[in-house]
Write a structure and sequence with these properties.
The longest helix has 15 residues. The chain is of the alpha/beta class and 275 residues long. It starts with a strand and ends with a helix. Helices cover 34% and strands 22% of the residues. The protein contains 10 helices and 10 strands. The protein is globular and about 50 Å long. A hairpin with a 2-residue loop joins β9 and β10. The chain has 3 domains: 163 residues, Rossmann fold, CATH 3.40.50; 69 residues, no CATH class; 31 residues, no CATH class. α4 packs across α5.
Length: 275
């Protein structure tokens, strides 16, 4: 069963005496939630997902954290000092740093995750092939990972995490370098994980979140500005004009007034229970 996630009064500073990157965050997400973490650059989105993955203490040993984090049955007080993979998987904003550079092919790069976890590659062969097909990277199987484009690298980095079947999946701006087809595949994968894993992903836009997320968090300068479901998020959309590009969603606002302008808007609004 996918684990719930609870943050209680979490404050995080990259060094003592500095301004907090996260300030007094209290958030509770049921297991199986797909949560979009939204906000402008510098709002604390990446810090939050990296904290949940347990990687901050390793890369910033001088950092200071307060509060507690609970993932499923595991409570971390103080905040986790160890990387929580494979239970918690994270793809970073820069996917190139997640490519090992020691494997000659994309398939072997994915296999490296399984080898590190001590899993049988023979038994996992079918899972690798299915995952590569889902992500649209089957044609890259024999390519050298370090020669791939940004979007291709992002999908391969995601594959190296997904193959471990993490209970919590964290994605830092996963759609940034993806073309339309790759974004469609990403949506299908996120939708397929609904209920099976607890998913949190960051974004500076709202198009992908409105299609796949069922819970929304909005951050500003490390502080929680909003937390709620899709219906509540849409109802408060005008409040985020200084934080998110909501002006492009005038069609959504008109749809909320009972005048849907497109099948896409109708689908979003119907999903929110507003039609």
């Amino acid at each position: 069963m996918a684990p719930s996630i609870t943050l209680e009064s979490v404050t995080y500073r990259y060094a003592p005496g500095t301004a907090p990157a996260l300030s007094d965050l209290s958030i509770s997400l049921p297991g199986g939630t797909c949560c979009a973490i939204l906000g402008p650059t510098g709002s604390g989105k990446s810090t939050l997902v990296q904290l949940l993955a347990g990687i901050l203490a390793k890369h910033h040993p001088e950092s200071v954290g307060e509060g507690s984090l609970t993932i499923g049955d595991h409570r971390y007080t103080p905040l986790p000092n160890d990387i929580l993979f494979p239970d918690v998987g994270l793809t970073l904003q820069d996917p190139y740093v997640q490519i090992s550079g020691i494997r000659e092919t994309t398939r072997k790069e994915i296999e490296l995750t399984l080898e590190t976890l001590g899993r049988d590659l023979v038994n996992e062969g079918g899972n690798i092939e299915r995952l590569m097909h889902q992500l649209g990277i089957t044609h890259l199987a024999a390519r050298k990972p370090t020669t791939l484009s940004g979007g291709e690298t992002q999908r391969v980095a995601l594959a190296t995490i997904l193959i471990a079947n993490p209970d919590v999946l964290l994605l830092d701006e996963p759609a940034t370098a993806l073309d339309y087809g790759a974004q469609a595949n990403l949506k299908l994968i996120l939708q397929s994980l609904r209920g099976a894993a607890t998913v949190l992903f960051t974004d500076t836009h709202i198009d992908l979140p409105l299609e796949v997320a069922d819970y929304f968090i909005v951050l500003k300068a490390g502080s929680l500005q909003f937390g709620g479901n899709r219906k509540q998020f849409l109802e408060h959309l005008p409040d985020f004009a200084d934080l998110l590009p909501v002006e492009a969603w005038g069609k959504v606002l008109s749809a909320l007034k009972g005048d849907p302008q497109s099948p896409f808007v109708r689908r979003i609004v119907q999903a929110a229970g507003l039609l």
